[in-house]
Amino acid sequence: MRAALLSEIGQDKLEVVDDMEAVGLGPGKVRIRIRATGLCHSDLSAMSGVLPQPAPFIPGHEGSGVITGVGEGVTGHQEGDRVLVCWLPPCGHCAACKRGQGHLCLESLVNAGIPNFRRAGGDIFGFAATGTFAEEIVVAANCAVPIPDDLPFDIAALIGCGVTTGLGAAINTAKVEAGSSVAVIGCGGVGISVVQGARVQGAAQIVAVDPVESRREAALRFGASEAVAPEAFEDAKARITSGEGFDYVFEVVGRSATARTAYRMTRRGGSVVIVGAGALDDNFQIDMFSLFFDEKKILPSMYGGGDVLRSYARTIALWRAGRIDLEGLITHRVQLAEINDALDQMRTGTALRTCIEI
């Protein structure tokens, strides 16, 4: 089968090969024929080494498709089921899951160290134990979440990561209050989803901050009240909040520099929400006096900060009701053979989300 392969960490191009095999179908596993997958910035971060990932590997973790094989002991799934791929499913029995924090489940991450592909040269890993830049994948059964017949595969793929991450940051993690002021730093697919989440929650002002003009224009279409370049952010703070700072500032870039900006632009007693996934050696520092005196809350948000299955269902309900726009997030479409075009679209900021049709 065909798949897009990264042979070594640090390479900036993927090789599309046709001799890949999805392996490991057995007890507790299912095989999925991938129909659509989104390109998430985390895929680029894994390719560059910012996020730890064994290589060689197949990127992609935001996918959807149809179950074509079911392993022994699997219940609740059958061949022909339409599913989205959950890259971090709650196991249900670890300490985090028992506390109701399934999005922090570590049991599922163990699978990331087990190869689930093979070709003549040896074993191949799938990013985050998935690897959706392939025609087929074999994953744990709880990674396959059934979707309704009226949900298109391309939209379902986005719900599997970026949309859930962004909406959840606003709804689950920050619990944005109606009438509040919000700023979102970084307006790719996840940042735009934060904007939509803040709008659903009833924020009065939503300022989108991004250096790319097309992304700023997109943020306005998705509900931002204002969109500014980074150099105009300070002026927006002065005009909108009388210099006090925003109630909530979301950092959706994954860098300490933008996290420091988010902290500075948040009012005393406000919330800094860290959504971007950054590097282990990129340290974020705050002096102890400010940390105490300003009482700003620092809220990291992992995968939307809540029960992912409930978040999926909520997202589908909001989409059906017309409260959020998911179709509009897909600004580009490519075939698997054109995957490197999708990487360029992400790196240059010309795409919110590129859908790879497989």
Summarize the structure.
This protein is an alpha/beta fold. Helices cover 28% and strands 26% of the residues.
The percent range for helix content is 25-40%
Taking the sheet with the most strands, its summary is: 7 strands, mixed
Class by SSE composition: alpha/beta
The count of strands amounts to 19
Helix-strand topology string: EEEEHEEEHEEEEHHEHEHEHEHEHEHEHE
Rounded to the nearest angstrom, the distance between the terminal CA atoms is: 11 Å
The number of helical runs is: 11
Taking Cα atoms only, what radius of gyration do you get, to the nearest Å?
A: 20 Å
Morphology: globular
Mean pLDDT: 96
- Strand percent estimate: 25-35%
What is the topology?
Elements lengths: L2 E3 L9 E3 L3 E2 L6 E10 L2 H8 L8 E2 L3 E9 L11 E4 L9 H4 L18 E3 L2 E5 L9 E5 L3 E3 L6 H7 L2 H12 L7 E5 L3 H13 L3 E5 L3 H9 L4 E3 L4 H9 L4 E6 L4 H9 L1 E9 L13 H6 L3 E4 L7 H13 L9 E6 L3 H10 L4 E5 L1
Parallel strand pairs: 5-9, 12-13, 12-15, 13-14, 15-16, 16-17, 18-19
Antiparallel strand pairs: 1-2, 3-8, 4-6, 4-10, 4-19, 6-7, 7-11, 8-9
Helix pairs in contact: 4-5, 4-10
